[in-house]
Amino acid sequence: MNGILASLNRGWRRVMTGLCFVLFGIGGLLLSVVWFNLLLLVQRDGARRRRLARRSIAACFRAFLTVARAVGVLDYRIDNLDVLRQDRGCLVVANHPTLLDYVLIASVMPETDCLVKSALLRNPFLSGVIRAADYLINSEADTLLSACQQRLAQGDTLLIFPEGTRTRAGEAITLQRGAANIAVRCGRDLRVVIIHCSEPLLDKQRRWYEVPARKPFFTIDVRERVNIHEFYDAAVQEPAQAARQLNRHLQHRLTSGLQSLSGINDASALPGN
């Protein structure tokens, strides 16, 4: 009997996951085609229009996550959320286990900036969102550093997934040096965020319909703020050397943080807990 109920539950979550993907796609198209074009007409100030676009995106992400949670597709918890919301003028760096990581973080940071892959501009569901939010594109090497400096100086937070792509299950976290380089050359602190998903879901190897046997639970743990001055002194260090040292530190922090969260969640799943 328990096996039948488990199969029915999994089948339900597979259907609801498909519907949530459809909902996400429709929402992205409506934002791009209707709402963002309306903003262009009614709001001439570029900075205010960008702020309204980002807040709209965050509100839509919260609605999407509310629906996904209500129909049993997933559940999630964000620890130390107030700390994350209060951050200004720093980089937010996180590991990247699933497709939903950006959605989870941006849903609670309505004015965050984001460094995104240029390939996403070819995605019909996301390209309009990226342009309206005026996110930074990682292929724009000539202007990227100055753009990061300008936005961080005006108090923006910049969300970066320094792995560059989703983590492969069973493989160690490996960071590209972009986030560390930006932090060093712009002289900005970094906030570490650890994302853990209790079940394999929407990772590098799995399609949307490959739902796990149990409902996935996301834990987003906001960790320490890394002081850039502990890693870079322009009087005695080259920026490249400091970036390498900082990158190693971030990789250690993300790896050890993920291991600690995995241990806590594994223990909570044991009988009697």
TrEMBL record:
Entry's transmembrane regions: 15-42
Keyword field: Acyltransferase, Membrane, Transferase, Transmembrane, Transmembrane helix
Listed GO biological process terms: phosphatidic acid biosynthetic process
A Pfam family this chain is assigned to: Acyltransferase
Molecular function GO labels: 1-acylglycerol-3-phosphate O-acyltransferase activity
Top-level taxonomic group: Bacteria
InterPro entries xref list: Plipid/glycerol_acylTrfase (IPR002123)
Pathways per UniProt: Lipid metabolism
Phospholipid/glycerol acyltransferase domain location: 90-198
SUPFAM superfamilies membership: Glycerol-3-phosphate (1)-acyltransferase (SSF69593)
Official protein name in the record: 1-acyl-sn-glycerol-3-phosphate acyltransferase
Organism per entry: Silvania confinis
